[in-house]
Each structure stands twice: as C-alpha cells, then as structure tokens.
C-alpha cells in the first residue's frame, strides 16, 4: 500500500570548528567550512555519494550550529582528551559534549511526556521499520506555518508513511546561522492534528530544530507523540534536493534512557 501510494506522487509535485583546549589545534575537519575543491592531500568531504545516488541529509556538527533558544550556537562540543601529539598516548581519543537534540536528531515520546519518559519509551524503543523505507520530500508553501489548511493542500495520498517537509527554513539557511531564530517555520497544533487524523504518515521530517512552530512548539509535539505512533526527525539538510520519492535511512544512536538522539540520515535515489 505504501509504495503504491507513492507512485501517484509525481503528479502531486506539480501542486502548489572545533577548537580544542590548551595547546591542541582545531581538528582539520573543521578548519574550513567552504564547499570548494579540496586542497591537494586533504580529505574530500561530500554530501553525495555513488555518483549522486546517495545524498546525506544530516548536518555536520560544528560549534556555530544553532542551538535551541541560544545566540551562542552549540559551542565547543568536541575535544581531543588524549593526544598522540606529545607522545604520551598511543592513540587519539576525543570526547563529545552536546545535548541529545543538537543538529539533525530524532525525538522519542519521553521528550514531552513525563510518563513515557519514566516508562522507558526512549530512542532505543523507536521502530527502525518506520525510520527506514520509501519517503516523500515535499515543498511547503512559503508564506505560512504548517496549518491544517496547508496540510490539506499538499494532497498527500493515503498509504504514504514518511514525509520530509521542506520549508522557508531551507531557503533562509537557518541551520547555517549561529543564532537561534524564533521565526522558523513549523507545524501549528491544528496542522499536526490534521496529519494524525487524515494521513498514514508515521515519520515527519523537518528542516529546523523543532517540528512545532515556536509559538506552538509543545502543543504540536504533544499531538504527534501522544500515541507513540509518529517519529519526529528534526534539523534535516534538504538543500539542493528535488522533491520526489526516495528511500530514507535514518539511524539514531542506541541511547537507552535518552528522549532524543543525534541521527545520520540519508536519501537514496
């Protein structure tokens, strides 16, 4: 049913840098964030693989990545705790320090429901069958948050289980700005309720740090996560991708007890 529904979608698309402490230098992976040609001998960093068949839609982590309600970004999240540089260690060991809802990440029911958190409905309980499979990327009208009227106008067929919503957030490159922006586009409560009541969607992907618009952030989350049937994937990198049907693979870390987790997400054409 899911794949059959997606076959109708092509017709619908016509519708409306880490700085280490002390004497340790920045990791070379964060020395230059431009997208030019790699210097001779430098590792190549790509968004597309296998001739463009595989596209990475997760943001790479950086200290100036936006963080929820912060003007300072994520900050120093990676440091080389033990280094081979001075000869005292036989291997390099880095340490991570960041919230579970940083960058591209998933939300578990315990994120907004205390009883689900206490009962153990964490990211390790999320259904991998939902996180992986055929997915539809749609462009959302750029003049509105995602309301019930907007959801209805998208005409997403029954049977489609995974939808990635590209919005004005991508056009404004909000995930590339250090300061958190409260004017980002997201779901209003009625839009979330319309999706739950009228579609078969079980995975909702968005292009900023929250699926819910700032003024209705928690109400929208409550609607989506109340029945533990919808998985939320937030802060996806949906630039330069043509709307259409893909195979999505999204894998959060197995963090038992955590209500969210960073995730690596890819699309396969």
TrEMBL record:
<dbReference type="InterPro" id="IPR037175">
    <property type="entry name" value="KFase_sf"/>
</dbReference>
<keyword id="KW-0732">Signal</keyword>
<dbReference type="Pfam" id="PF04199">
    <property type="entry name" value="Cyclase"/>
</dbReference>
<feature type="signal peptide">
    <location>
        <begin position="1"/>
        <end position="20"/>
    </location>
</feature>
<protein>
    <recommendedName>
        <fullName>Cyclase family protein</fullName>
    </recommendedName>
</protein>
<comment type="similarity">
    <text>Belongs to the Cyclase 1 superfamily.</text>
</comment>
<keyword id="KW-0964">Secreted</keyword>
<dbReference type="GO" id="GO:0004061">
    <property type="term" value="F:arylformamidase activity"/>
</dbReference>
<dbReference type="GO" id="GO:0019441">
    <property type="term" value="P:L-tryptophan catabolic process to kynurenine"/>
</dbReference>
<keyword id="KW-0272">Extracellular matrix</keyword>
<keyword id="KW-0346">Stress response</keyword>
<dbReference type="InterPro" id="IPR007325">
    <property type="entry name" value="KFase/CYL"/>
</dbReference>
């Amino acid at each position: 049913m899911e794949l059959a529904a997606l076959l109708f979608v092509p017709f619908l698309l016509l519708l409306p840098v880490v700085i280490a402490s002390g004497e340790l230098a920045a990791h070379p992976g964060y020395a230059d964030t431009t997208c030019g040609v790699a210097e001779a001998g430098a590792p190549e960093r790509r968004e597309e693989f296998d001739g463009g068949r595989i596209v990475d839609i997760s943001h790479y982590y950086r200290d100036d990545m936006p963080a929820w309600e912060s003007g300072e970004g994520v900050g120093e999240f990676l440091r080389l705790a033990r280094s081979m540089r001075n000869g005292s260690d036989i291997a390099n060991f880095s340490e991570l320090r960041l919230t579970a809802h940083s960058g591209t990440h998933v939300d578990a029911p315990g994120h907004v429901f205390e009883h689900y958190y206490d009962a153990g409905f964490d990211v390790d309980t999320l259904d991998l069958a939902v996180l992986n499979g055929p997915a539809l990327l749609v462009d959302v009208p750029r003049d509105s948050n995602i309301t019930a009227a907007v959801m209805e106008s998208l005409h997403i067929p029954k049977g489609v289980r995974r939808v990635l919503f590209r919005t004005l957030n991508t056009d404004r490159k909000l995930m590339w700005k250090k300061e958190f922006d409260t004017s980002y586009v997201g779901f209003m409560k009625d839009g979330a309720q319309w999706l739950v009541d009228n579609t078969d969607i079980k995975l909702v992907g968005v292009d900023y740090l929250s699926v819910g618009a700032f003024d209705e952030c928690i109400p929208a989350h409550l609607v989506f996560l109340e029945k533990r049937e919808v998985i939320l994937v937030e802060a996806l990198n949906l630039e330069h991708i043509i709307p259409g049907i893909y195979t999505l693979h999204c894998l959060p870390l197995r963090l038992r007890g955590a209500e969210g987790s960073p995730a690596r997400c890819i699309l396969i054409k």
